[in-house]
Write a structure and sequence with these properties.
By secondary structure, the chain is mainly α. It is 63% helix and 5% strand.
């Protein structure tokens, strides 16, 4: 796969793992706002994976999952993104897919834009979650891309 896409996906996995460690250590594991937003973040990652694999998009559970269940789903999703990423070449990145949850006219975008959307959407909500941890008196972590580069591109530690 094209290096920038691999780096973005690898950074995202690392940053999500760091967030889950920070959340787990925060004393706020039952915070409804964190659980709801993280469920949305993980469900969106899963939905985009289904789109990329050509599968029908399954709706998430109605009940709000606990931290450990969200963490397990997020880790599994990142493993799937990593496997998918190994198979992407320029033609695969240019392939157009339909994002089914947008109304007509259809949202038709290349796989490269899907990957960018997943990374940006996740980054946005992860930032909100870190801000929430800080508001709750916990210690948020800096998971900027440059921090990941500075640390020599560490693997996620789930």
């Amino acid at each position: 796969m094209n290096s920038p896409w691999k780096d973005l996906l690898d950074h995202q996995a690392w940053a999500d793992a760091v967030f889950f460690w920070a959340w787990g250590a925060s004393g706020a594991v039952d915070d409804q706002e964190l659980r709801a937003r993280t469920d949305h973040l993980v469900s969106t990652q899963e939905a985009f994976l289904q789109v990329l694999k050509g599968l029908a998009v399954a709706l998430p559970e109605q009940s709000l999952p606990e931290l450990q269940a969200l963490k397990a789903r997020c880790e599994a999703g990142h493993q799937a993104f990593k496997a998918l990423g190994r198979s992407l070449d320029e033609a695969s990145l240019a392939r157009v897919v339909r994002v089914p949850w947008f109304p007509e006219p259809p949202c038709l975008i290349p796989v490269s834009d899907v990957l960018l959307q997943v990374c940006l959407h996740t980054q946005h909500h992860r930032g909100q979650n870190m801000t929430r941890l800080k508001a709750l008196g916990a210690a948020p972590k800096n998971v900027d891309y440059i921090i990941w580069l500075w640390k020599q591109r560490p693997e996620p530690r789930w």
